[in-house]
Amino acid sequence: MLMSARVRRIGAFEERFARAQASRVVEFDWGYVLLQAEYPASWQHNRVVVTSAVDPAEVVAAADEVLGGAGHTHRLVQFNDDVAGESAATTFEAAGYQVHERIVTMIHSGALPARTGNRVKAIEFDQLRPALLHDWRADYPDDTDEQITQLADRVLLYARGAEVAFLAVQSPTGEVIARGELYVADGIAQFENLITRPESRGEGHGRQLVTEALHRAREAGADLSFLIAEATDWPRSWYRRLGYQDANQTHVYQRVP
User: Fold this and answer.
1) How far apart are CA 159 and CA 231, in angstroms?
2) pLDDT by residue (tens digit) across 65-78?
3) pLDDT tens digit sequence for 80-96
């Protein structure tokens, strides 16, 4: 029962956070569509969210109508219910969706890990931006400069829905070699986008970033800290070793242009 209450709180936080960043929200009886006109290259900000029971075919049609009507060629649909999301797989595959991801919400429990050998600092966006541009370009070499710029600059939207801290480990010359983002609102903290440059891995930077985020969240008054992880990717087991527990699973379907 306690875990269910925490999952509901996180769900409410995620919805408020997402809606605050949108330039327009299209409502349906079974969910909503987020649109962000300033950042059309950000699929996360232009997506369908399913919150209650519905025929998956109706969701496919709504995605085409609203996302397509806004000029988007991608499709991104999130099912918040595990069972409904899993059962929609056949419909979305038939509609040409190539990607089906299972995303796990993980809640931290127990004592906070000790801050040891801490090199983590909170930095300004201008200090973070070169790392964002570098990493997005490495991940998407075929995207245009405008698309890469949007993917980097979209983090400015986060402050519309939460207190935001850009946490980083920097080299002696000031280059960001590891980073993550902490969002806090309504007594809840979310830590996301943990990235360490390949040449700097194995030095404990990721653990230091997670630890610092947990302490900062507690100091900011959050009594609930969570993050999300892909169900089949290795960081999930690593987060478990840091005190996170699986709490809920959502499903994300993508149709790539």
Assistant:
1) 28
2) 999 999 999 999 99
3) 999 999 999 999 999 99
